[in-house]
Write a structure and sequence with these properties.
By secondary structure, the chain is mainly beta. It has a single domain, classed as TonB-dependent receptor, beta-barrel domain (Maltoporin, Chain A), CATH 2.40.170. Helices cover 6% and strands 53% of the residues. It contains 5 helices and 42 strands. The strands form 8 sheets. The protein has a 22-stranded antiparallel barrel. A 5-stranded mixed beta sheet has the order 3-9-10-7-8. Strand 38 and strand 39 form a beta hairpin. The chain is globular. It starts with 6 loop residues before the first helix and ends with a strand.
Length: 793
């Protein structure tokens, strides 16, 4: 068990780690200069290459304009990536934060189709889920597995600058994507609401001044088939009215089979489309409108199988047929493995999401005004055998509807404007408004094999429903002063206020199921936070820099997920708060042929929100509670090198030391998790990639291999120690690695792609559902292989 550290020891550890990082950056940075450290740096040339006259424009460009043209392979240089992660166009290497970016070429070349494909390629990022509607995203050990409207994600997801407030609608197919940016660490100033762990910024492809298009269709094992097409260009002779339209459909049979019904699930069943329109009445004004729709069908439903309980505290063997909420002596059919089992009910899914976005970008000369307005709707119904066994115990069916409106307004300085003081300052001020109205109903069918219905021999129905209203306001500003040609200082501040209301109701058809008596509870709460950010960025050379930052983050408090009593509904959980320190090093080396980025960080985390389901005297209790304090320390490293025009190599590595410093879940049940590891926070994550490229006949052949590995980690608090419950040992996930292979042959405008994901057919769990001492496991994706045919024009 991890050692609990005193406040003094934590300060010493933090200072030690950050000092080592600073020394490493200063000692090794100059020696890794692109010219190998020979000769003196021409700082006159450096100043002209990075001075105010060359500063990036303050406006956020359209996606098609945000990418630098790729360098030819025979130039040996790694392509530069231009991002809008800080609400203005900048080179990714110039931004003093831990940032990983994937351009459209990388999205296609790596076979990225969802955030699940992104996570293994970014240091210290973990993605698991109960399916597309129930994601679990963690960055540097910070995340959440809650997905109802009463609570929110710790990692903010943004699509075309729009915050996606509902976790159940925040993850979908990544189609027609220009760029994906993953920002690690709290992003409390510019992104704000619930980005305490980090942010993911997704940018779709926008309209273009020239007519262009692309398409792709493919097949795979498990009966998979998919099709995608997109086109865009001008709609009038002047070219000031432009469009882009994209549509897609993907289907694949599930890889998990219910032996009781013969049906499969955990496949792909996704259809969507996006239409974007841009109007440019002048060089200074651009108006963008977009509409997007997304549907996930039944084949994409997720379900898990009962794995029983682990050994008792006395060391008895694990019981694979033990089932939650059943009478003593009741046993289920043993499940053969994660991908095959017996459940009394097949899972279901029907999700529809729609988005309407309007964006105005107006260059007023000295400043640029940006407005982003969005309205999103979400309708989702899903169901599952909650305990995943052959017995009729508990089936859950959920229905959620949500309407979300957001408005962001920003004013940013232009580099050549009067308010930039001749390029000395880059600044941005803005306001943000968020309104969400959500309803959710959960129906629990209590079967005849349950402890409370076995004697009666008839099932019962319990219903928990909630109505939510959430309103959020924020004001924010950030300014960067270019103190010298080498030193920049950034100061940021954001004020956020959340007002929340919830009416939660429980009804029962019997006096003894999980809801013992009918109830209705109304709660109202408000939370606010003032979050600063301070960053110093120092350029060692034109291609190398070190930075140090201090920031705070805030995640709003909220209401319990599916309370089973008025007492539970009245337990509101408090906001999370974080203080984060980070030192980083960014570089392009050896004439641009290599790129090395590193960051060390330490977090003081207060009131971390943790969700658990426990068995309280024969009745389930689902509670979100606040872990009093937690500490996270770690290291991120990303390295990319172009060995020659035929070979690229990349490596990313993340190390975490993440523990609950003070976390007493229940004093009565002796559930004190202090000193144990945070959930879903593997100590080590590693990603290796190799891509080889050469001419073949009249075309080009590219072959790529990627291997992602996670060290062992825990799905539940308790670090696998069975003294916290007999199921806790089964919540430990052993280390595993996933190998992906791709080969692409391209000729002129055509290409053929062969792919294989999880080539070694590694068995692993993407998540678990811990029900008291019973663990329900959800299988990760097996080996998938297929071929795609694509074209561009």
């Amino acid at each position: 068990m991890a050692k609990k550290h005193s406040p003094a020891e934590r300060v010493v550890r933090r200072v030690t780690v950050l000092s080592i990082a600073a020394c490493a950056a200063s000692l090794y940075g100059p020696s890794l200069h692109a010219q190998g450290g020979e000769g003196e740096i021409d700082w006159d040339e450096f100043e002209s290459s990075t001075g105010a006259d060359e500063a990036a424009p303050a406006t956020s460009p359209e996606p098609a304009e945000a990418e630098a043209a790729p360098a030819p392979r025979n130039d040996y240089a790694i392509e530069e990536i231009v991002v809008t992660a800080q609400k203005r166009e900048q080179r990714a290497q110039d931004i003093p934060i831990a940032l990983s970016a994937f351009t459209d070429d990388k999205v296609r070349g790596l076979g990225i189709e969802s955030i699940e494909n992104v996570a293994p390629r970014v240091p210290s990022v973990y993605f698991g889920s109960f399916g597309a509607a129930r994601p679990q995203l963690y960055i540097r050990g910070i995340g959440t597995r809650s997905f109802d409207p009463g609570s929110e994600s710790s990692v903010g997801v943004f699509a075309d600058e729009v915050y996606l407030g509902r976790s159940t609608g925040s993850f979908g197919a990544l189609k027609d994507i220009e760029r994906i940016e993953v920002l690690r660490g709290p992003q409390g100033t510019l992104y704000g609401r619930n980005t305490i762990g980090g942010a993911i910024n997704i940018v779709s492809k926008g309209p273009t001044p020239e007519f262009e298009g692309e398409g792709e269709f493919g097949i795979s094992n498990f009966g998979g088939n998919e099709a995608f097409a997109a086109a865009g260009g001008p709609l009038n002779e002047s070219g000031n009215l432009q469009f882009r339209v994209a549509g897609w459909h993907a289907y694949r049979d599930g890889y998990v089979t219910n032996l009781a019904t013969g049906n499969s699930f955990q496949g792909v069943d996704n259809t969507g489309g996006r239409f974007r329109l841009a109007y440019l009445p002048s060089d200074a004004l651009r108006i963008d409108l977009s509409v997007e729709t997304l549907h996930d069908g039944n084949e994409a439903a997720f379900g898990g199988f009962n794995q029983g309980t682990g050994p008792s505290a006395a060391g008895d063997p694990a019981n694979p047929t033990a089932t939650f909420f059943t009478p003593a002596g009741t046993a289920a059919v043993a499940n053969p493995d994660l991908r095959r089992g017996t459940a009394d009910t097949d899972p279901t899914l029907d999700r529809d999401a729609r988005a309407y976005v309007g964006r105005v970008n107006w260059d007023l000369g000295d400043v640029t005004l940006t407005s982003v307005s969005a309205f999103r709707t979400l309708d989702i119904e899903d169901g599952r055998d909650l305990e995943g066994s052959s017995l009729s115990v508990i089936d859950q069916f959920s229905a959620e509807e949500s309407d979300q409106f957001t408005q962001e307004l920003r004013i940013a300085s232009n580099a050549d404007g009067a308010f930039s003081m001749n390029g000395f300052l880059d600044w941005i001020v803005g306001g943000f408004y968020y309104d969400d109205r959500s309803t959710r109903e959960d129906q629990f069918f209590i079967g005849v094999d349950s402890a409370v219905r076995a004697a009666a021999g008839t099932p019962a129905l319990d219903v928990a429903s909630s109505d939510y209203k959430i309103t959020s306001y924020a004001l924010f500003s950030e300014v960067t002063a270019h103190l010298t040609e080498r030193l920049d200082l950034t100061l940021g501040l954001r004020y956020t206020r959340d007002d929340k209301e919830a009416t939660q109701t429980g009804t029962t058809t019997d006096a003894a199921p999980i809801i013992a008596t009918d109830f209705q509870v109304f709660n109202k709460a408000d939370y606010d936070s003032l979050d600063p950010r301070v960053v110093a960025n120092f350029k060692l050379t034109p291609d190398q820099s070190v930075y140090a930052s201090y920031s705070t983050g805030f995640k709003s408090g909220g209401f319990q997920y599916v309370p089973f009593s008025a007492a539970q509904a009245n337990v509101l959980f408090e906001p999370e708060e974080i203080e984060a320190w980070e030192i980083g090093y960014k570089s392009r080396l050896f004439g641009g042929r290599a790129q090395l980025n590193m960051a060390v960080f330490t977090y003081d985390y207060e009131d971390l929100q943790v969700s658990r389901i426990i068995d309280a005297g024969g009745a389930p209790v689902s509670l979100i509670s606040n872990a009093a304090s937690s500490e996270v320390m770690g290291l991120d490293l990303e390295f990319l090198v172009r060995v020659n025009q035929h070979l690229d190599l990349n490596l990313s590595y993340g190390h975490l030391d993440a523990t609950y410093e003070d976390y007493v879940f229940s004093a009565e049940q002796d559930l004190n998790f202090s000193g144990t590891d945070l959930v879903r926070a593997p100590d080590n994550t590693l990603s290796l990639g190799a891509e080889t490229y050469f001419e073949l006949g009249r075309g080009e052949l590219t072959m790529r291999a990627d291997y992602a590995w996670l060290s062992d980690f825990y799905f539940e608090p308790g670090q696998g120690d069975n003294r916290f419950g007999s199921g806790i040992p089964l919540s430990e996930e052993s280390s595993y690695g996933l190998l992906d292979l791709r080969v692409v042959y391209a000729q002129d405008q055509w290409r053929v792609t062969g792919f294989m994901t999880n080539a070694l057919d590694e068995e692993y769990r993407r998540t678990v559902n811990a029900l008291g001492s019973t663990i329900v496991g959800f299988a990760g994706q097996p080996r998938i292989y297929g071929v795609k045919f694509g074209w561009e024009f």
